[in-house]
Amino acid sequence: MSPPTKDDIFAYALSKTLTRVSSPATVGLYSSCQSRIRRVLRKMEVFLTRETVRLEEQHKLKSRPRPVKPSLCGMLALLGRLLFYKPIWTTENQDHYNVRFIYVNFSAWHFAGSDLLWAGLAIRLLQAVEIHFGKLLLVLYRVAQHHKEDEVKKKIVVTGPHHWRSKRVCCCPLWCFILLSLLVPIILLIFLHLTFDLSKIVGKPSPKVNGSANHAGGLEGLLIALFGVPAATALAFLFKMGKSLVFSQERNIQRGMDNDRVSAKLGFMNKVRKEMWLISRYVEFMEVFERRRIRVVLRITNLDRCSPRKIVAVLDAINILLSDEDSPFISVLAVDPEMIVQKVNFAEGCFCREDRGYALLNRIVTLAFTVPPLCDDSKLCLFQNLASGSRTLEDLDEDQTEGLKLNFSDPSGVEVRSGTREDYPLIDRDLGLHVTEADIEHCVKRSVGSIERKLKEYFFDDAMSMRRVVNTIRVTVIITKALKTKLPQPDLIAAWVVLANQWPCRLSWIIQCVEDALQRAEIDRDEAVADGSKTLWEVFSESRAELYVMRGQIEDLLDQDGDPEMFERFLKLDFRLTVEDLKAFNVVTVNLNQSLKKELAQIRGTSRLNDSGWTRTFAPLPITSIINMDSEDICKELEKMKYPKKYADIVKVNGISGSALVFGNQDDIKKLLDMTFGEWTTFRLRFLGSPLRKQLPRPSSSHQDTHHHPHLASR
To answer: CATH 1.10.150.50: does it fit domain 613-713?
Structure first.
């Protein structure tokens, strides 16, 4: 048994969570490496199929689910349900134990040339449903089951043992009415044949007798009356079927996309929305028939290659077209979040805060899953693999996934898998990932139950945010169990998830500060810095002045965070998380966008020159070091720079600290020190020459900035 990789564990955790997530849902699968995204998607599909097979094997109830590929009897039963019955929505068939997934690929790049990318997404879903279930069955459902008034009717869920009710005509079941319509004429003909000699009546070539002529005319009229209405009804039904087969809705949408006069009208989008509603109801119908949940997993890739306007169009389509409360869609948005955010911020119509990149993603995504960066061992394995002639990261586990690759480069973009065991020849390969549902539920309840009274004060007042927290807690628990790691305090899993969800910018800043301190300590061989008992609030308090200096550059990042006072209360009073906790939780954190920390690291200047040679005396000091300096530290630096002692005395007498140098007026400092031009130039380069220092806001705008971020100015 080969040991599982980190990507195996991430895909496994995501698949276990998706079997429990209620639809509709949007999963943000974030990574800057496209190979890792494809790898996780491929493995996720394998684990999802394995999970569905396991659920059906464990199912012990009487009403077992029907086969995915029905037999002849099953097909006849399905046709009978479509023609003569309507489903009853019950509490049982709305939440089946078993589930299966239909996978649909949508490469946004293939529709990048269209102005209506959202309509292309609808076409892709319509094609996938037709390919999977069969176009004839979908057309039959459209003609026999679909009624316009059903869209405005409220869906009623009842409790009862019956899942079907027969269609009725004049208080008579439809199947019984049709049967009677066929039997009554036959019975009447038999009766007439026994009463009258029909063969003689029919056999007369040109009857001259009025009585015989009357008998023949009456018989013809009777036959037309008896068989005419059922025949006309059948012909009308067949005509509708033929019309739907010839003039498909897919073709109608494509014509609407090509016609600017049609696509610019509100009716076109409403028509596409109705098609999405029809697909949702058809899948619900099949759920009742198959006795299992059916989820359509729409994998959206290459969206970050499109223009900003089209990216926003797809995100709006996910938010509008696929967000019906009863829709069976699970959208997997596999993108590089940094690229998406940057392009969305430059899109037309981005006027308010809610339209900007991070806010737009948070409004749509119900489960943010950021693929953590490769560990050192994986990087080494990838490098060795590339050196041996392989091309991508996907070749690292080629022996495990042979035959399971998805055709992401298919020009049509359509690939539909039913998610059955037969579709995956290596589905039974064991990687040692076995986390029972009972363990997961126990840990989730333990994580939330013990501190839910404290956590309720930190939730946003919207259901989307709460769903995101619940789903992330489940993923975090599964990853923790799969990694077989023991967290310092497992009860704090929910607290950590809420912290990353409510204050992503501040938490990313804290993580970056801790990483920088550990790297500096490793270079300087300072073991004291490695102490993990320091609280996260202490780390933030020591570096918040530096964050204040950067506030003009990270305004979009800070806007994601919630109440700053609640953040202080969270870390200072309710949950005193430490650096040691951070190290443990950081391994299993998937709801924190890594691009935030990357942007903060770039601004902070982590890629500094080595502290050697001329940099020890003349290069600008890091802003972090300057802010934390007191008068004694500045005097020591002046001594190293071989300045006269009188300048150190001035610093001591006037109590000049690092904060005074950073936030004070340069002209006032120069006048106070009274240095020569050469001495002042060197001093300014050393203490005031940081790029961040030059970007401080002018005094005239300081009031405005403080108004936007008072939590930084007041601390």
So the answer is: yes
